[in-house]
Amino acid sequence: TLTFAAAFSAFTNEVIWLIVASFFLSKGFVKTGLGDRVAMFFVRWLGKSTLGLSYGLVLGELAISPGMPSSTARAGGITSPATVVMKMARRDQALGATAAGLGTAKRRIRPTARQMRRGMGFTPFQRSCRKRRRTAAWQGRVGTWGLTSRSGGVEASLPLPVGAWAFVCLTVTVVTKTLTFAAAFSAFTNEVIWLIVASFFLSKGFVKTGLGDRVAMFFVRWLGKSTLGLSYGLVLGELAISPGMPSSTARAGGIFLPIIRSLALGVDSMPKDPSSRKLGAFLIQSQNQCNNSTSALFLTAAAQNLLCIKLAESVGVTIPNRWITWLKASCVPALISLSVTPIILYLIYPPEIKATPDAPEMAKRKLQQMGPVKRDEWIMIGGLLLTVALWIAGEAINMPSVVAAMIGLSVLLLCGVLNWDDCLSEKQAWDTLAWFAVLIGMATQLTTLGVIPWMSKSVASFLKSLSLGWFGAFSILQISYFFIHYLFAGQTAHVGALYSAFLGMHLASKVPGLLSALALAYNTNLFGAIAHYSSGQAAVYYGAGYVDLRDVFLLGLSMGVINLGIWGLAGAAWWKILGLY
């Protein structure tokens, strides 16, 4: 009935974003206490009688309503608490009068500590209002000046979150008329952005239904009799769920880290202790390093993969039948890497415990506790298989990948596996929507305005002066792209800053476009474990406390070089067979 662009065209509508921004502004009234202050001012002024009290509350709401468009928020966040304060004050006055009349009270009845913390129940009433205003001093400061003076920091020592900073930058481009409103917000109708968001919601189902835990425990029970087998079981578990769970951080923190921690503690392998080397440290590093190739194997296994594809299109490289093309090019080097990584780590970072006979039994008990596969898990399996099938056959049936993801998500919502609150609570998805859209929009404009082509030609001219062929330029650019990641915290930040520029340099150096786009995208996953800050999952695994920082850097560098070698040699040979160059 509608094309995707037509269905989502309202996301470039100014009125929609005016409403959204006004809701955010109204949050400031509640958070700063300014709404309470205004309401209490009028209550103190007119609150000597019940009729005056009602007028005071009405005037308070009248004063704040222009900047607080949510009547529900005004009622629940400000007016309702103010009314409760009045009732508590009147109740205390009545109790005080009764006690005095009976001669049983020698002093005024005071509010409880709970009431004092909530700002309720003070006596007399005017002192309540005065105290409420006094303790709220400085809470009504205007946040805009604070953000400006701190140059992107919420506090002097804390950086502004990426999503918030992206929104500020977007605002600046519109205010300065660098971009029109429609151009600045054009990426919010982008199919890839909504594919990422829908995939995050699908991944929520793995955690909520327990299907992710069940799959992981199945492989642990099957292969977990030895430490090496245990590591392969965990890797296979992640490999099985990664196509439908695009957040490697969620896979690490929500599924595999709790399992690894339980296995390690079961053999007295404790974090931040010499005993960590018994089992926990090895399993952590094995899973962390294998995550690189797991994320690189499937297009939908990591959010940055989808971002790379979209940025490639903005530079002029179109990838046909994305899901299949990606998998065909990645399968050989990724599977080789996944096969040898646990063995290499077993040799250079060996666990003290070689056999884990209790692990299969633990997994068996866990599976027994879960019981048979439940209805929601079957629906999750069916929805995932349907989505992946549509991703694979999408080009043949003329169905965009985002529509396939929307169908899978709709199945989960209609069947009650997920509810809308689950989607709303997935903050990472909404944050990704906000700043990925800004990033893609600006990257597209940089290409349109000629910045990326100019930079690419400059670097290509330098490489040409070295008398290198396109393969030499390709190798230098890929290695540079990998090791420069030590300067970045996170993979998506690296992609946003450098992917388009490096792809442009490849193209200007006459490197085949499809090869360049895919190799850079795969490379983006390979550096995810070179440091504790290099990706979200690396930070999660390091935070478990099983691996020393020194070992993180040494193993990260060693395995990074090994993976570069695998993908550079086996990958290059396989890509030649596929005809990518």
UniProtKB/TrEMBL annotation:
Transmembrane intervals: 6-26, 156-175, 182-202, 378-394, 401-420, 432-452, 514-533, 553-575
Highest taxon, organism lineage: Eukaryota
Subcellular location: Plastid, Chloroplast inner membrane
GO MF annotation, one: malate transmembrane transporter activity
GO cellular component, one term: chloroplast inner membrane
Main location: plastid
Pfam family, one: Na_sulph_symp
Topology of the protein relative to the lipid bilayer: Multi-pass membrane protein
InterPro entries: CitT-rel, SLC13A/DASS
Record bears the keyword S-adenosyl-L-methionine: no
Keyword terms, alphabetized: Membrane, Plastid, Plastid inner membrane, Transmembrane, Transmembrane helix
Alphabetized NCBIfam families for the sequence: dass (TIGR00785)
Family, similarity comment: Belongs to the SLC13A/DASS transporter (TC 2.A.47) family. DIT1 subfamily.
The protein's name in its UniProt record: Dicarboxylate transporter 2.1 chloroplastic
